[in-house]
Design goal:
The structure is a single chain. The chain is of the alpha/beta class. The chain folds into 2 domains: 124 residues, Rossmann fold, CATH 3.40.50; 95 residues, Winged helix-like DNA-binding domain superfamily/Winged helix DNA-binding domain (Arc Repressor Mutant, subunit A, Orthogonal Bundle), CATH 1.10.10. It is 43% helix and 21% strand. The strands form 3 sheets. The chain has a 5-stranded parallel β-sheet with strand order 2-1-3-4-5, sandwiched between helices. A 4-stranded antiparallel β-sheet has the order 6-7-8-9, covered by helices on one side. A two-stranded antiparallel ribbon has the order 10-11. The mean pLDDT is 88.
Length: 228
């Protein structure tokens, strides 16, 4: 199931960029550019996470946050405040009225997505794990599909297990023995070179023409999901 994220923000350029980047991560995104309307739509749609601008027409983000925290249905829905106000007292106020996180503008979209995922892992762990990503590689575990950018990658069962295993701990180097133990759990008498064969197949499948090689070979140590 896709996580549903509601953006209440009145700057079109920010909405467009944030919406685009969230949808790339397979989130369902709803938008309002008005405070009062945003509050009513949030109550109707019941999102899994809210991105809330501080300065809004009609009703401020602070007032929306206060109203939502008074409603038992929304007491635990994660809220990230987005604002140009970066003074410490502003951050404290935002957190004190019930926001879970506070992101000053301008912000990095990578940082925003990381914070969204971190909050969803705590509040909706089953949703957060449905889709995982590393750089431009995305794995949709519900549909058992893998994408590099917008291109779907066809993988065999073993290669699919390998990429799912690697993405849990990007940059960590796994020896051939560790990969055998974790991927071929029910097999016996599997040779170490079997790992090399399937790594080659995985590398060939996910490294499309013109893209980085995401599988790093560490001499005498093993393999990692980590561009060279």
């Amino acid at each position: 199931m896709k996580a549903k994220i509601f953006i209440v923000e009145d700057e079109p350029s920010i909405v467009q960029l944030v919406k685009y980047n969230l949808e790339k991560q397979n989130f369902k995104v709803l938008v309002s550019n008005n405070g009062e309307e945003g509050l009513q739509e949030i109550k109707k749609t019941e999102p899994d996470l809210i991105l809330l601008d501080w300065m809004l027409p009609d009703l401020s983000g602070i007032d929306i946050c206060k109203a939502l925290r008074k409603d038992t249905k929304f007491k635990n829905v994660p809220i990230i405040m987005l604002t140009a106000r970066s003074q410490e007292e502003d951050k404290v106020l935002g957190l004190n009225v019930g926001a879970d996180d506070y992101l000053p503008k301008p912000f990095s979209n990578l940082e925003l997505i990381a914070r969204v995922n971190a909050l969803l892992r705590r509040s909706k762990p089953s949703i957060a794990e449905d889709v995982v990503s590393f750089q431009d590689l995305k794995i949709d575990r519900l549909q058992r599909k893998v994408f590099r950018g917008n291109v779907e990658i066809k993988l065999g069962p073993t290669e699919y297990k390998l990429i799912n295993f690697f993405v849990k701990n990007p940059s960590r180097v796994y020896s051939r023995e560790q990969l055998l133990e974790n991927i071929w759990t029910s097999s016996i008498n599997v040779e170490l070179r079997t790992v090399d064969v399937h790594i080659r197949r995985l590398r060939k499948a996910i490294n499309l023409s013109g893209t980085k090689d995401l599988i790093r070979t560490v001499r005498s140590a093993g393999y990692a999901l980590d561009p060279e």
